[in-house]
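I have been asked to look over a protein record a colleague put together. Alongside the sequence sits a line of tokens, each denoting a local backbone shape. I have pasted the whole thing underneath without changing anything:
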Amino acid sequence: MQIKRVTPIAVSFPMRKPVFMAGVEIRQADNVLLRIEADNGVVGWGEAASAPTMTGETVESMMAAAFYLTPAVEGREAQDIAGALAAMSTRMYGNNAAKGAIEMALHDLVGRATGQPAHALLGGKQRSRMAILGVISTGELASDLREAERRKAEGYAAF
């Protein structure tokens, strides 16, 4: 099963409520969806989030990186994820969000093609449950603390 086509797709979704992080107010999620299609028609999906004030990556830079990395990935055996990662690293330094979206899409593609869950492709299941992460960021300490208490009562264990 070879990788036939890599397609990055820029998306922007409004957030239910703004988040204050790294000195900025975030009102929408600007992400890149990454679609990989194999020569047998199976499709895998990945995603990367822009975070210009934290990682330096924007939708525009991730789209450009994905297009630049495409020749290193197309035509390769989909199951050789480590080989694809090495080829991407040789072709381009950094740009970890775009590379991560491609890697995620490859795992999804191989998992769908083989009927395996992602954890089987990543070394096996490590746990049956994990803590729910709650993002708290109103921009004001007192309201953040109230929100944390409310979320904790709802079952969130990490913030």
